[in-house]
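Service request form, structural biology core

Requester: graduate student, group of Dr. S.
Request type: structure prediction, single chain
Budget code: on file
Notes: please return the result as structure tokens.

Sequence provided:
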Amino acid sequence: MNEAEREAGVHTFNYESLPPNLLSSEIVGLLTAIREYKGKQSLYLEAKPDILSSLLEVAKIQSIDGSNRIEGIYTTDKRLREIVTKKAKPKNRNEEEIAGYRDALAMIHESYDYIEPIPSVILQLHRDLLRHTSSAFGGTFKSTDNVIAQIDSEGKQTVRFRPVSAVATPVAIEQLSRTYTTALSQDLHDPLLLACMYVFDFTCIHPFNDGNGRLSRLLTLLLLYRSGYLVGKYISIEKLIEQSKSTYYDALEASSAGWNENESNYVPFVRYMLGIILAAYREFEDRVEGLTIDTKSKAQRVEDLFDQRLGSISKRDILDHCPDISETTVERTLSSLLKKGAIKKVGAGRTTAYMRTGFNDVLIAD
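Core staff response, request fulfilled:
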């Protein structure tokens, strides 16, 4: 750290000498398993282009939806698809945010090999993220200090973490990027570990007035792709995080304790993220093998979902699980199953779902 960084009070980023607990048997086991799945995925990328194309489209929609939902940003399924496919323009702030994530994600998907995680690129991604909004902050670091707070059941706000000050943010981002790039270029440690550390430290810096969480997830994909881990293109990592949002925040909180004093522990967050990446690879393999091996009709595959899962299952769940089956086919199959009395409808409107009938209504579905 140079004199300017010391005066600014910037956290020390050290990716050259990792804490011993980051090389525990548990974490090494996760890294090994992920590397094995990565090798298998390379074979699928060459052999299953049609299947991968359908998975990619589903994952893109789920990523845009999941990452924004974590921040309380959402719209209807219909509007989401129209915005993602650029068939409709945003109507409100939520949809503007969704459109921005769409654009930033597209740039990463298309050009990750040429996008380095350096300050100018981070600012560009942030500008793209907010480009459809009226925000004046897009593409600029925060102008005032911010805090990460939580609100209890009585509405009382408690500061959980104080990120880097506004004045120190440019220095922190520059040092973070330089440290990561140096460690990666020197092949000092597993790139998956370095990626998780980078994303965690970026989140602790919290460099923007708005969009920090979403940008951290975009950077996660960027770093994974640049290291050859492409699973996030076909299985939404953001959706998996959204589905385990409570655990995600717990991991961030556990790791961030003592960060400003250089006494934090990367392990909870790194372990969580590696678990998410491994889950994505496992789901990828299940999806590809299921689509490749299954010789049943599309209608039968839809019906079989009700015998494979517990709970209710929505039309969107079916479309996401079977990306090669059209919405028309799903609707026709559901209508046929309803007429036969094989399933029943529960809920209405946006909450409409379906359940297998019989067995005293202890039903097998999703």
